[in-house]
Each structure stands twice: as structure tokens, then as C-alpha cells.
Amino acid sequence: MNKKEQQYSKIQWFFLVIFIPVVFAIILFSIILSFMGVNVIDQTKQVVSNVPILSNYVKTEEQILEEEEKANIEELTAKLNQREIEIGRLETTVNSKEEEIESLLDEIDLLMSQLAELQDAQLEVFADYEEIGKLYEAMAPQNAARIISELPDDKAAIHLSFMKTDTKADILAQLPPEEAAQLISLISE
């Protein structure tokens, strides 16, 4: 038992005489330096970062900032790559849309030329019907009525629609009432 007591007393002596006073002195010295304007924590980190084994566990603000910058650079690089992929996809979409627009413009040009041709043909037909209407107006109403009664109803209605109202009335008066009613009905549609 005596050995154990001696062993305890050596440990107690070490803590009471060396360890506690040293810790107290370090704390007191840190407080005094803090009041003097010295940043004790940063200075301690700086000193400890130079010690080979302890430098792995303690990092200075510069090292922390460097690590944060590296992380930010990696994050921004990943975002940049993602944006470049997105830009490539959008450029492909724009190119396909431009091709589609060009094909639609070509189709519009084709349709416009077809429309112009149809309008020209329609103007020719319109001119022909006006010419026929003038022929009927030059005839006697009885003769014009006989010719119109021989035509199919839809053609007769078209011919009548290109005549003046007075001539049209004279010709319809010469036709049988059922046929005249049928033609008036077709003209009004």
C-alpha cells in the first residue's frame, strides 16, 4: 500500500506543483495579452500550425480560407460545366427552330404563289362571267330566259348574279314561277 500512496503522491505533486500553476499562468498571460490587443487565439493557431504533428489538427484562418476557396472553385467549375451543357442544348434547339422557321417560310412562299395563281384564275373567271352578264343584258328578256332555263340551276344562278337588277328581274319574270323561285333562292345563298 505504501507504494500506491507514493505513486499517488507523485501524481498529486505533479498536478499541484507543476500542471495547475502552468495552466493558470498560461490563462493569466492570455488574458493580459488580450487586454493589450494581441489576438492570442490566432497567435496560438499560428504557432501550433508550424508544429509538425499538431498542424494536422489545427488550421489557421488562411488555411480555412484556402479550403473554402478550393471548395468554391470546385462548385463554380461544376456549375460552369452544367451551364455549358445547357448552352449547347439550347444552341441545338435554336438551330432546329431556325431550320423549322426557314422551312415554314418556304412553305409560306409556295402557298402565297399558289394563292396568287388562284386569284388570277378567279379574276379571269370573274371577267368571263361579267362578259356573259353583259351578253344577257344585250338580249331580249324572252331569249335570255330560254337560254337560262336550259342551264343547270347553279350555273344559271351564277349567270344571273352578274347582271344588273333590272335585267335580272325581266329575265326571271319570263321563267316559270317554280324555276324563278329556285334561282332566286340560289342567288340569295
Note down, in words, how this protein is organized:
It comes from Anaerobacillus arseniciselenatis. This is Magnesium transporter MgtE intracellular domain-containing protein. With 189 residues, this protein is mainly α. It has a domain at 139-189. It is built from 7 helices and no strands. Helix 3 crosses helix 5, helix 4 (141-150) crosses helix 6 (165-174) and helix 5 (153-161) packs across helix 7 (177-188). The chain is rod-shaped. It starts with a helix and ends with a helix. 6% of the residues are buried. The mean pLDDT is 84.
Helical residue percent band: over 70%
Encode the helix/strand succession as letters.
HHHHHHH
Shape: rod-shaped
Report the uncertain regions. none
Beta-strand percentage range? under 5%
* End-to-end separation: 131 Å
Counting H and I runs of at least 4 residues, what is the number of helices? 7
Topology, number of strands:
0
| Rg from Cα | 54 Å
| Major β-sheet annotation | none
Q: Structural class of the secondary elements?
A: mainly alpha
The overall pLDDT average reads 84
Pfam family, one: MgtE_N
Keywords: Coiled coil, Membrane, Transmembrane, Transmembrane helix
Protein name: Magnesium transporter MgtE intracellular domain-containing protein
Transmembrane segments: 12-36
